[in-house]
Specification:
- The chain has a 6-stranded parallel beta sheet with strand order 2-1-3-4-5-11, with helices on both faces. A 6-stranded mixed beta sheet has the order 7-6-8-9-10-12, sandwiched between helices.
- The chain is elongated.
- Helix 5 links the parallel strand 1 and strand 2.
- Helices cover 43% and strands 15% of the residues.
- It has 342 residues and is α/β, with parallel strands linked by helices.
- The protein contains 12 helices and 12 strands.
Length: 342
């Protein structure tokens, strides 16, 4: 069944297409009887606007693009829930792409979304992204962007993050208070913003508790935990040190799970021999053996704030003064993986 058009309505009512168009837009600058007649006929004929035509006329698609490393991750799935909640309330559609930690795929997704004329984009960078030129090129052309979680090291972009420095500081302090002296830090590639911030929080906690910083205990995982072989080798290298760690702070879901798996396989008692704190939003963290102490990030809240800011940039850019850098607090949930008395 073909959809009725503005031209069809105009022909049926013997009106001009411009008159029908103004009536359907509820214009106040036209005869009330004519408007009522047009709206009633449109209702009877089940008229609905052509979204492509509306997009071309208003130069808006009412769609926002989202690019993130992966959906099969509790943190990012919760973040998407926050994005979609706000977008739906504001009448926007959400188009989601995964980079799968690939820079090439990330750029391909970026180009596709731009070609589909989305109104703005939300991006969490892949672990292999070092060249930001494709993003800056679109920003210079007027495309609104908000980066979340993994963000560029630049003051000239809008960012929504969690308090990576403070949460890493608190997690390291917790291990120190529980008697651990040689705390290893498993983390993502060194050029990611989250890596820098979490490493600095870890380092500061050691300094504040008079524990020397040992670079041998810092392991940067190039694939951010996405490659099991890399995780396995990293943990094996730590355990083979002359003075192996008695605590581990792991900076992602996959690094945390890889660490737990290896320690269980080698019959290393947790937390008696090695205590573990991870960054994870996994709902089952409390069901692991032992239950996992974890930094839980405000994923849904980050998604909501990022989407609110992006829609502001799309609809009312003049109301935003300067670049916004918003950091939301995380929560340290203490369980038995880091303290045997719990």
């Amino acid at each position: 069944m073909e959809s009725i058009t503005i031209k069809d309505i105009a022909k049926a009512l013997n009106l001009s297409t411009s008159t029908v168009s103004r009536a359907l837009r509820d214009s106040s600058e036209m005869n009330l009887e004519t408007k009522k007649m047009v709206l009633e006929y449109a209702r009877q004929m089940n008229y609905s606007p052509n979204p492509m035509a509306v997009s071309l006329r208003e130069n808006k698609s009412k769609a926002i693009g989202v690019i993130l490393p992966e959906i099969a991750n509790s943190f990012f799935s919760q973040l998407i829930n926050g994005v979609e909640e706000v977008a739906y309330e504001q009448g926007y559609h959400v188009v989601i792409f995964q980079s799968h930690e690939s820079y090439e795929r990330e750029v391909a997704n970026l180009k596709y979304l731009a070609s589909r004329r989305v109104d703005g984009m939300l991006v969490s960078l892949s672990s292999l992204t070092t060249d930001l030129h494709p993003f800056h090129s679109l920003i210079e052309k007027g495309m609104p962007f908000v980066f979340f979680d993994r963000v560029p090291a630049s003051e000239k972009v809008h960012t929504i993050t969690s308090d990576n420095y403070q949460s890493s500081y608190n997690a390291t302090k917790h291990l120190l208070i529980n008697g651990k002296k040689r705390i290893a830090h498993l983390t993502s590639p060194r050029y990611l913003s989250i890596t820098t911030e979490r490493l600095e929080g870890y380092r500061r906690a050691l300094i504040d508790h008079d524990i020397p910083y040992d670079e041998n205990l810092i392991k940067f995982c190039h694939y951010g935990g996405a490659v099991a072989q890399e995780n396995e080798q990293t943990i094996r290298d730590l355990l083979s040190l002359p003075h192996p760690p008695d605590g581990i702070l792991a900076a992602s879901d996959r690094l945390t799970m890889g660490c737990l798996e290896h320690l269980h396989k080698n019959n290393i008692r947790i937390p008696e021999e090695i205590a573990i704190v991870g960054f994870t939003n996994m709902p089952v963290a409390g069901l692991l053996d032992p239950p996992l102490t974890a930094v839980v990030q405000p994923a849904a809240g980050m998604g909501k704030r990022a989407t609110e800011l992006l829609i502001q940039l799309i609809e009312s850019p003049d109301q935003i003064k300067g670049f916004q850098h918003i950091s939301l607090p995380s929560d340290l949930q203490v369980r038995r993986s880091s303290a045997s008395y719990i």
